[in-house]
Design brief:
This protein has five helices and no strands. The chain is an all-alpha fold. It is elongated and about 55 Å long.
Length: 114
């Protein structure tokens, strides 16, 4: 049985697909490349701004960060925000898990972004 991807996972996959399209078909008309870049920028903002609440979605957010790091076109302004957002999601997930299991939060996680 194949697990259906969440909306979050689908948007990360779409970002990767757009990146591969841009690389595979370059050079292309400027208007086409602009459309791909615009779509990627919108997806970047959506992915970073959306809370990932399951371990699958948090993993997808870290996968997105890996995609950003793997691009040859230079440093991205969104990288820092993506890392911070992914850590916040991971901390919230682990704290909720610890609260459910142990009745308390993980104090050491709270210091990661301090």
């Amino acid at each position: 049985m194949v697990k259906e991807l969440s909306e979050f996972q689908r948007m990360v996959a779409l970002y990767g697909a757009l990146d591969r399209l841009g690389a595979e078909f370059c050079p292309m008309p400027d208007e086409a490349m602009d459309a791909i870049t615009t779509a990627q920028t919108k997806l970047e903002k959506w992915i970073v701004g959306m809370s990932a609440e399951t371990h699958h979605d948090i993993s997808a957010k870290f996968e997105f960060i890996a995609m950003l790091l793997g691009q040859d076109s230079g440093e991205f302004y969104i990288e820092f925000d993506a890392v911070q957002s992914a850590l916040q999601d991971l901390i919230a997930y682990r704290n909720a898990q610890a609260q459910r299991i142990y009745g308390r939060r993980h104090a050491e996680y709270d210091t990661l972004l301090a």
